[in-house]
Amino acid sequence: MESWTFEAIGTAWQIDTQAPLAPEVRDLVADRIERFDRDWSRFRDDSFVSAVAREAGDRELPEDAESLFDFYTDLHEVTDGAVNPLVGRALSDLGYDAGYSLTPSATPTAPTSWSTIDWGGADAQRRLRTDEPMLIDVGAAGKGLLVDHVASILWAEGLRQATVDAGGDLYHCGTTPIRVALEHPHDPTKALGVVELEPEDALCGSATNRRAWGDGLHHVLDARTGRPTTDVVATWVLAPQSCMLADGLATAHFFAEPERLLERWHHQFVRMHADGRVVWSPDLQGEVFA
User: Following DSSP, what letter does each residue of 208-235 receive, concatenated?
Assistant: First the structure.
């Protein structure tokens, strides 16, 4: 396999293919990532997200907002409001801001409920209408969606044997399964388990130690309080044909009971609690060393 590695949207990417990617395919991938970043980054001044954060108003939504916001609506409902893309202001107040100060500047508060935001219904033109500036953060599912976009480009270019890895968010487009280790959240030299990723499967993990910058400060916030969650420390989700689904559910597993999530979405999961307890799907395609 040939590997193309690069940095984008603040994380390391690796795309494995049977043969080196042609320059024009690399350009397509780079352009799609740039457009996504220009829409959804809260770390650049020219993004859609930054415009919404500066001033209230009525704005046309980015091209992929419908699928992303629809999914956030479902996640918001099933977690009783814990997952909410308006949590960006609380993240910034805690120090995970556009300048990466990593220094809290204010006491975080719960954001406006996502269910009150006007961005159009099924039969309406999809536009975002806000009465006040709001800081959107799509980190709970956005990177997974971008991986789906990149995988779609490879598929459209006829690359049927490929794996896209964006900082641990994986989409496997290959013809044979691959085995992936689950990094232990307390010791990166160890694996908590291993799963088998079938063709057209996605795997995403989230852990409170991945973006931690102070005592009890990390990026997984409970939007009901605006503060970092404490009960669950790591999650992994394996889902068919959608890295966005796997990514969003990996976040949802910090807040909702597995049974509730499994009733709505077909997926497999592993999650580790702060007390060291590990639970996982009975049908998990793999093994947990616990």
Answer: TTTTEEETTEES-EETTTTEE--SEEEE
